[in-house]
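Minutes, project check-in
Item: structure for the 404-residue chain
Input as provided by the requester:
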Amino acid sequence: MLSPQIRDLVKATAPVLKTHGVALTRHFYARMFESNPELRHVFNQGHQAGGEQQQALAGAVAAYAEHIDDPSVLAPVVARIVHKHVSLGIRPEHYPIVGKHLLASIREVLGAAATDALVDAWAAAYGQLADMLIAEEARLYADSAAKPGGWTGWRAFRVVGKQPESAEITSFYLAPADGGAVPAYRPGQYVSVRVYVPELGLMQPRQYSLSDAPGQDRLRISVKREAAGEQGPAGRVSNALHDCLQEGGVLDVAPPQGDFHLRDGAAPVVLLSGGVGLTPMVSILNHLVATDDPRQIRFVHGCRNHAVHAMKDHVNAIAAVRANVRKAVFYEEVGPGDQRGRDYDHAGRVDLCAIREQALVPGADYYLCGPAGFMRAQRQALADLGVAADRIHAEAFGSGGAPA
């Protein structure tokens, strides 16, 4: 346990970290990568270049300082971090490296304000946090290794199928190159994959949701090609997968992880997705169908237009024969050839108020996945419609969450 004096010193830095945390984390990453360039293979350099990772870490450090008296408040955030660390292969030996550069950055960025007492307090606080994360990660590593067909670290998978799903999204079917089994996973979870990026001279990892039901002899990921645009440069890994990874090719894959998944129980399920956020939702839907689950299921999806609408025929086919499955698809742009009921059901962005009689199911669990703006809008809509916060489960794409 940290002493009251240490907790007070750490907590007192929270306002400073909220204001200047990004400067601190930017300095930290630059310092660490200069001294330990091998870690650039572990971190998403696209998020580094765009600043997302620095912002995510700054927010996490400030939140830890603010809640140092009761870190259990951050349990959901910690769970997400732990799953991502295990998916990326973070090991106990990495923590002293991070701690060294974080403490040095506190001194170098805060200057005279970083007294010996403050740095010592943060060293103790970081040690406590590191011990907690290492223990949880050890549990997940052990669970991954103990499953039939399980493993830790990277494992070679062969592409046994490649299927375009839309103008932007392609599915890759992956089977273990060693001929072994595929472990069970929870519908909604993701895997990390890594490829060599020549422009960076680095192996680069990315997380992608598993897009099919568990219990098969292969995994499926469905990857959106990230084109260059106002939001940033083209995605190096997604484009490499689309352009270079063909049937017969081999890809490094980490074991399934993620705290976003179908909950246990028999509660009705409402699946809300935007764009490529439908991938974990299709995994959940396929699992419920494969197990002949009788609960009520709602599949609500929004996308720009017909060209980028992935897995349309698959979802339509399920809804056509399953009385307990109802779908609602929103197109922002309805084309002249689009047919209501076949291609889309509603024009515009996803509007839960407009379909409340269909989307709101008593006692349901609500699962959200998509871009940040979509997630904020749907979470607020659900709250406005009276859905309790503990019934809303969300997966965000980007550096602060899972798959990107």
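Outcome recorded: The first strand starts at residue 155 and ends at 164.
No further action items on this chain.
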